[in-house]
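Journal club side-thread
Mid-discussion, someone asked how the predicted structure for our own chain would compare to the paper's figures. Pasting it here so we can look after the session.
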Amino acid sequence: MNSHGMDELKKAFVKEFRRCLIEHYGKIPSAAVIARDFTLASPTAIEPLSIETIRKWLHGVNLPQSARMRTLSNWIGFDASALDEAFKPAGDTNKTASFSTQKSIDREMIHLLQSFGELQESERETVLEIVDLYRRSKALKK
């Protein structure tokens, strides 16, 4: 995914996150309140969130990892399908078309895309080389 696609994904996340917070609280509460309540709603295996992490989510700097996305879904009703809008082709006005109908995307994929986007360029090239080698080795085994 290019940086534009990642930006669109982050914008879609922020929009849905804010919508859910307003529906849950009646407004967007402080990052401290969100961090506290998220931590209380989380399974014990998930580390508590920092206020800075919440701020990054609210401003679209970072996306939550998959386990945290599940907590958001259970806690405030976050709908990951709202992220489908980020994957519609430009100019697509078909409200029923979504990326998930074209290709399955789940919370793990979002985490993967976020992690890949945080890598330095040389690290991305290395990951892509590994993927290419893996594909070629699978093709040779056929």
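Post-session note: The mean pLDDT is 79.
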